[in-house]
Amino acid sequence: xxxxxxxxxxxxxxxxxxxxxxxxxxxxxxxxxxxxxxxxxxxxxxxxxxxxxxxxxxxxxxxxx
Length: 65
What we know:
There is one protein chain. By secondary structure, the chain is an alpha+beta fold. It has a single domain (18-65), classed as Ubiquitin-like (UB roll), CATH 3.10.20. It is built from one helix and three strands; from the N terminus they run αβββ. The chain has a three-stranded antiparallel β-sheet, with no helix packed on it. A hairpin with a 5-residue loop joins strand 2 and strand 3. The longest helix has 12 residues, at 3-14. It is flat and about 40 Å long. The N and C termini lie far apart (34 Å).
């Protein structure tokens, strides 16, 4: 396993990746679509002025979609 992948895996295990949504704060959604996948990311602006992940969704499309 390469070192970049290992560092990424450790980060997912050791850091809190999702924040609890607060509708009183600024929220934005980013959407990306291609011929074979769709991705959606919901972000919220936190006290430290950084956009943090609230939710993530991706779907691999089949030939019909």
